[in-house]
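Schema walk-through. Below, the input block comes first and the output block second. Nothing else is stored per chain. Lengths vary across the set, and this one has 213 residues.
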Amino acid sequence: MKRLATIAVAGTSIIVLSGCELRRDGAEEEPAVEQAAESEDGTTATPTPTESASPVASIIRNDAAPREPVAEVPTQPVELTIPFPDGTDISAAAERQLAGLLTEDALQEDWPVILGGHTDSGGNDQANLRASRARAEAVAAWLVERGVADERIRVIAFGEQNPIAPNALPDGTPNEAGRRTNRRVEIRIAPPAGPRAGTETGAGNRTGQDQGA
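--- output ---
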């Protein structure tokens, strides 16, 4: 009987130990709880937050910085060529160019408006002078109708004197494309170069420009 009791006690001990091992092996690890450190006087010290590594943004406003003065850009002269490939009437394309000219700063200045009329080499000299003046006069009238002072405008008839394209081909035949290019009015709006003796400006002087071109 004693032997049986000893065996029973030993079996019970093994079962109890096995249960302890099972509980120890199967227990989940509890998360570590951060505990506040206690100071020497027994009070609890609050953990110090970690300082951010980000730089502190500047509070200086950009618009508070001193600004350099902006240099005023002077008004620039304007040069424009208006084509007159056929006759002396202003075409739709030429009118669009003139409409753009009205927006130029140079036109707002009190500068003279020089209109130089040109033709090709076809016809005689007097006919070409008349045709070149008629083209320049058409542009002058268009500008005056839209508010440009008549006394600012000066018309010069050049006739065939200043071609910008060949009037004839190398074999001597007419160069039609070049002749169409030469029929034009050149506009220049710029500060006056200075008074010239015996020179007048304005509408009343336009008809007298043919012979002096």
